[in-house]
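Reading a protein record of the kind used here takes only a little practice. The integers have meaning only within a learned vocabulary of local backbone shapes. With that in mind, consider the following protein and its fold in token form:
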Amino acid sequence: MKIEYPWTESQFVRLALYDFELGPRSGRGKATLLLVIFMIIGFLAINIVHRGFTYSVWDFVIVAAGLCWYALRGALMIRMFGRAFKRSGMDGVNLKYNLEEEQIKIQVDEKPEQTLEWSTIKRVIRTQEGFMIYPGPMWLPAARLEEDRTADELAALLQRKVTDYRDKSQHKLKLKD
């Protein structure tokens, strides 16, 4: 099966967000969120212990800062990923993947083709829009499959070849497209 597409900021942001939300390190994001919540609760508890149940402006500032961070963290991440892509100098690079029974062949622009054995692939995560392959992650957008192939056919191949295959196609990104 062949997949070919230009590497764009949109593709990169999708991959980065899917990786953040579903990838092997997704627990870090949840742990960070819990840590921030516990810190805010802790600051409020310390203030209550020292002053009693009287409220101050700082209590509201702490809660407001926490709510603002929670509300804006998605937009901040998208902006951060966009800036990282612009600094990478990879805009418009053409990626070609050829997934065969024996191996995956990868070509980036006109550089020499690279071969990746299936045994080196540790995890595949299927999303609504494509597949993330680890190590990497590498992004295989389902919409860019060659015309006579479907995402289900690609999923079947990946399930046969990779032991750690996860179907997260019900997960929806919070993007405004």
In short: Strands lie at 2-7, 93-99, 103-108, 114-117, 123-126, 130-134, 138-141, 165-167. The chain has a mean pLDDT of 87. Helices lie at 9-22, 26-51, 57-88, 151-161.
